[in-house]
Design goal:
heterodimer, A: about 110 residues, mainly beta, 6-stranded mixed β-sheet, 5-stranded antiparallel β-sheet, about 0% helix, globular, B: about 110 residues, 4-stranded antiparallel β-sheet, 11 strands
């Protein structure tokens, strides 16, 4: 099955700085790449996703880039705020999204 | 408001007990998943189901089984609970290439 690797495992930034989290995947057939944010005591929630026919997608302070040739994708958060502090997971899936695999997660801390 | 509901937030069970974790979604989603979340290991897929009575093994199915008798309900079964199954369990549901919705999680402790 698909194998997703995520780096770094922890990331600490100053408020206002940018944060970048990177993921690689193993199966070139994967075609859907979502990112989830998990706050303390809650289940993960989708923040942005990208499909394989698109190289970049942006939503306000959040952007995701996809390099299909290299099989990696990244999450970029600009102008970070303390409420961005959470655990972020990348995921990859194919074939009707019925075998979604996640990375190990990145704990982001934004210091005021 | 879409919802994935897990039957228990916290559970404490004894070694050797049979444990049922229930998950219900109200979005008519075809796909449902059970993940296990452990520090440093992320979300590991235990089982998933893409239709009623259909199931597929994920990456760590040993010691677990599942049941999907109705589209909205996906149950995870620990046939004989062991201490190494102490973990946070997350249920999720999705439609084709749409976002996954997660339940709030069940923190299971096996003593």
């Amino acid at each position: 099955g698909e194998n997703v690797e995520q780096h770094p495992s922890t990331l600490s930034v100053q408020e206002g700085d940018s944060a970048v989290i990177k993921c690689t995947y193993s199966d070139s057939a994967s075609n859907y790449f979502p990112w989830y944010k998990q706050e303390l005591g809650k289940g993960p929630q989708l923040i942005i996703d990208i499909r394989s026919n698109v190289g970049e997608k942006k939503d306000q302070r959040i952007a995701v880039t996809l390099n299909k040739t290299a099989k990696h994708f990244s999450l970029h958060i600009t102008e970070t705020q303390p409420e961005d502090s959470a655990v972020y997971f990348c995921a990859a899936s194919m074939r009707n999204n019925n075998d979604m695999r996640f990375g190990a997660g990145t704990r982001l801390t934004v210091k005021p | 408001d879409v919802k994935v509901t897990q039957s228990s937030r916290y559970l404490v069970k004894r070694t050797g007990e049979k444990v049922f974790l229930e998950c219900v979604q109200d979005m008519d989603h075809e796909n449902m998943f059970w993940y296990r979340q452990d520090p440093g290991l992320g979300l590991r897929l235990i089982y998933f189901s893409y239709d009623v009575k259909m199931k597929e093994k994920g990456d760590i199915p040993e010691g677990y089984s599942v049941s999907r008798e109705k589209k909205e309900r996906f149950s995870l079964i620990l046939e004989s609970a062991s201490t190494n199954q102490t973990s946070m369990y997350l249920c999720a549901s999705t439609r084709f290439e749409q976002e996954a919705f997660f339940g709030q999680g069940t923190r299971l402790t096996v003593v």
